[in-house]
Amino acid sequence: MTIAIDIGLSASGTPAEFDLEELLSTRLLVQGNSGSGKSHLLRRLLEQSAPWVQQVVVDPEGDFTSLADRFGHLVVDAADYTDQALQQVAERVRRHRVSVVLNLENVEVEQQLRLAAAFLGGLFDVDRDAWNPVMVVVDEAQLFAPAAASETSDEARRAALGAMTNLMCRGRKRGLAGVIATQRLAKLAKNVAAEASNFMMGRTFLDIDMARAADLLGMERRQAEMFRDLERGHFMALGPAVSRRPLRVRVGVVETGSRSAGPKLVPPPTQASAAEARELILVAPEPETPRPPRRMPRASAPDLLAQLAQHRPALPAAEPVAPPTPEEKAEHRRKIAGVLTKILAEPDAPFRPASVLYQDFLVRCRIEEVGGPAIDIPAFRRLLTTARAGIGAEAAERSEWAQAVARAEALPDDVQGVFLLLARAALERQPCPSDATLARAYGSRSLGRARRLLAYLEEQGVLVVRAERGGRRSVVLVGLAWETAPGDPNGPEEAVTAAA
């Protein structure tokens, strides 16, 4: 049975409908400048499909909480939960098939990324027996899947981007159907936007966004100017769930209201005289009443663990402690390397966020009684990157390897591990790693992403990929003159172990 969702009217006056089952299989991307009617479109879609499918709304501004009054959605205030607790809430949401609105309006932007990542991760990681269809609507998706670095920390950005990528790229088999809305396509990560097969393009003014919108809809570039002329609530639709050709749609009315409606003109009161205005405005202020303390943002679990690891009770003054001997330093490096080796030996370690691995690392260090100064998360990231490349603690001290590390530091954090893996293979004249091995070092299972990553590094002038006989390839590192032996890009995933 085909379930048709009424979105509004087409330019010819006929109903414009979404095939709900097809929409859940092929996902939806909505784009339009502020005031173009994106939230109105999402609200219409949610209201019309509420009787047919479970819904999850990631709401950064609290606009969709009114769905609770009319359709019974559960509003989850993210400010009341930690990352771990919110992940457990998401798992229960899927098991019990309850429609929810994740309200993020009361938390800071960086914490919004962390909490949204935890919630989406809980939806994604639930057991197979709970893989029922869920429509996951993410408003202002460019906040959670930015195309470039922002003012937030790299850790929070990567966590949110990874969760959004899982939703759009791998969520279909788990029953997750992503519906994302953004103000600008240029601000949204391409690997997230590219997974949608249905598009609703609203009013847009910037040339780059109009050109991308026209390309997605299969229109000629000269037709892109039309996006400037679209009225509020009018969209160009395309996709297997709505129309095989670009279709102009006017979104219909909604039953629930938004708390962020546009401002209405309100005439000011009759102007008072200058004396009255002075008395009203410049009167001596009344004594201030004490305000209730503002809720402090919760520290993340990695930060708390780092603080606990660094905490030392106050001790009476004692004689200065002698600096560690070279033998003690070597033993400390050996213990740290042993802990990292045990962590990376777990099958799912390459695909877990660095923050989660850091928690495991701190706990294991306490169990193994690893002394010395506490390692903060930036230092841990450097150790983790080196360990994933298969470089042992002693080998990392060599001057040749220091050159590779120096060049890696100029690259984005998420690709440094792949570069160092290639550097190690080139330094030891080993075969070029396969796509599966590179993808694992990047923390992904996508072979296509590994190939795109190699192309990106080549575009940045970091390396040169050479085609060899028999479909093999080798990699030359620019500036180091190191070259790998020819390797099979389609070969199996290789276990990366530290050199002795």
From TrEMBL:
Signal peptide: none annotated. Residues 24-214 form the AAA+ ATPase domain. InterPro entries: AAA+_ATPase (IPR003593), ATPase_Atu1862_pred (IPR014588), HerA-like (IPR008571), HerA_central (IPR002789), P-loop_NTPase (IPR027417). Keywords: ATP-binding, Nucleotide-binding. It holds the Pfam family DUF87. The keyword Transmembrane helix does not apply. One of its GO terms (molecular function) is ATP binding. This is ATP-binding protein. It comes from Falsiroseomonas frigidaquae.
